[in-house]
């Protein structure tokens, strides 16, 4: 189903507390992220027996940005030999941008900017109907792929994630 292949961004965790707010950084931060079918299936399995936040503390509260990076992301990147000081979560957005612009993918420029929440810079982007054309965006998400299968598999392969990893060997 198409609606299971996207993430809708309309909330965020406040910078220095675990409160969720509907006010995002910019008006362009409110967006939809269309997923490749394999990524959607993986996320569906991950969330199958959960409700609420995708990532949360044992108390059910949202992680603070820095704590999640320090406690979860950085150690995994270090273990894979990929950690660099200051790399953080934004590196995923930079990787995705590079992947979408690579010659083998050549993602439609309007779609790429839409997914990355870039502010429109020309009239054609302002009046683009992409926001309403989910079918085109989902087709493009499937065509361009996601480019990090091995990395994601390695990051989630750890004690406590083994059943998810085992179940998703044919997915991500």
Q: Biggest sheet, strands in spatial order?
A: 1-4
The strand count comes to 4
Q: Treating each run of at least 4 consecutive H or I residues as one helix, how many helices?
A: 8
**SSE run:** EEEEHHHHHHHH
**How many structural domains in the coordinates?**
1
What do the pLDDT scores average to?
78
Quaternary class: single chain
Which structural class is indicated by helix and strand composition? Answer: mainly alpha
Kindly report how far apart the N and C termini lie: 18 Å
Report the principal-axis shape.
globular
Radius of gyration: 17 Å
Largest sheet: 2 strands, antiparallel
Strand content: 5-15%
Low-confidence parts, pLDDT < 50 over ≥5 residues? 159-172
Give a summary of the structure in a few sentences.
It contains eight helices and four strands; from the N terminus they run ββββαααααααα.
Task: Explain what this protein looks like in three dimensions.
The protein has about 170 residues and is mostly helical. Helix content is about 45%, strand content about 5%. It is built from 8 helices and 4 strands; from the N terminus they run ββββαααααααα. The strands form 2 sheets. Strands 1-4 form a two-stranded antiparallel sheet.
């Amino acid at each position: 189903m198409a609606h299971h292949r996207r993430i809708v961004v309309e909330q965020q965790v406040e910078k220095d507390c675990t409160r969720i707010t509907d006010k995002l950084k910019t008006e362009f931060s409110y967006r939809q992220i269309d997923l490749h079918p394999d990524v959607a299936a993986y996320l569906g399995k991950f969330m199958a027996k959960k409700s609420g936040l995708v990532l949360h503390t044992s108390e059910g509260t949202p992680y603070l940005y820095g704590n999640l990076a320090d406690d979860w992301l950085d150690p995994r990147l270090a273990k894979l030999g990929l950690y660099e000081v200051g790399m953080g979560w934004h590196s995923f957005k930079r990787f995705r941008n590079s992947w979408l612009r690579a010659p083998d993918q050549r993602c439609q420029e309007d779609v790429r900017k839409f997914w990355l929440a870039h502010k429109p810079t020309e009239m054609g982007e302002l009046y683009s109907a992409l926001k309403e054309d989910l079918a085109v965006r989902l087709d493009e998400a499937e065509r361009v792929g996601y480019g990090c299968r091995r990395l994601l598999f390695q990051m989630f392969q750890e004690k406590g994630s083994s059943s998810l990893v085992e179940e998703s060997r044919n997915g991500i």
